[in-house]
Here is the input.
Amino acid sequence: MDMQESLLQGKQYLLDTYSQVPVVFTRGKGCILSDIEGNDYLDFVGGIAVNALGYGDPGLMKALSDVLESGLLHCSNLYFNEQAIKAAKGICALAEMDRVFFCNSGAEANEAALKLARKFGHQRSPSRTGIITMVHSFHGRTYGAITATGQDKYHVNFDPLPQGFSYALFNDLESVKALVNENTCAIMVEPIQGEGGIIPADQEFLQGVKALCEEHDLLLIFDEVQCGMGRSGKPFAYQTYAVKPDILTLAKALSGGVPAGAMLTQGKANHVFTPGDHAATFGGNALAMAGLNEMVSRLGTTSLCKHVEDMGEYLRSKLEGLVKTYPTLCTSVRGKGLINGLVLTVPPRKVVDACFKQNLLVASAGYDVLRFVPPLIVSEQEIDKALVILDKALASLL
Ligand SMILES: Cc1ncc(COP(=O)(O)O)c(C=O)c1O
Here is the structure.
């Protein structure tokens, strides 16, 4: 099938929930995606922070093939499977947490966290059900997750929403304090807001929120679905702040591209759920867990995280150069490791399209940010190549 015919069929049969760029991909290698006609694209989207090891990584492919060969893709959580036990031990050690619940996506990991927080509250008092989240946050598309998401655009037309959520200003401790009361059970934060526009938390803000949680016996939930798994330059973004949550939620890059989510707990969050409280048929699926085991072993060696830190610094310095060259089009650079944003004065879609025409994939975040979340293995040469294209794309918009 050629590109046009494929696109026609995609548009006809896939439910219309995305504004998709008209390209059909069939193969990938490293940071390069190839379309159905054999054209190559340099990928700085990485499946939106999913393909941490790029495409066709030999270690990941071998780990997945070994599971395929074993024949055991899946067995129910009525039983244990070897891959899931190894993954549980590995991810808990990497994240310095105690226990983990496996599921399939970021929204599901956050649902698990919200339910656990409510049960934790109920154990203290039937009215302790309040959950505070942040304005501009993003936590996923299920009902609990959209309600936790502090952006009206995700709520419109979907009410009635679950009750008991309130929204504080990100990086404004006083606004969080103002919402804490005797009915609060948890505070949920992305250490680096992703969809909201790549906004890293301030150190003092996260420290202050942690102190509030300790003072009022609340659960602190960090959503690291986008900024976790090495993206910040440490295995987990919370480690760059040295502020540890009671609950950590993960997905996206967790299994290197195989769908998986996880909710990790420590301390007072460890024993809230008991059998029957929560479940996911596919949680701990052997194929997904093999991907996770490969990710854990790669992030466990410091060299990948160091590479992310170095490439992140290099990318940000280059982006700062663009801010100087095109002050009317871009105003600042934000981010950590390899989760970075270029703040624009023009609609990001214009730059996304101009880059696409030159075979560079980038995406937007928020309403004015161009987002860069390439595979963590991206090289300096690839960053240089992307920046040449981006420079031309910006020049074309003057
Ligand atoms: C911080 C954060 N949380 C949760 C989600 C939802 O993840 P998923 O799409 O896997 O449900 C996302 C997705 O972009 C995210 O960025």
In short: The two ends are 38 Å apart (CA to CA). Residues 38 and 170 are 44 Å apart (CA to CA).
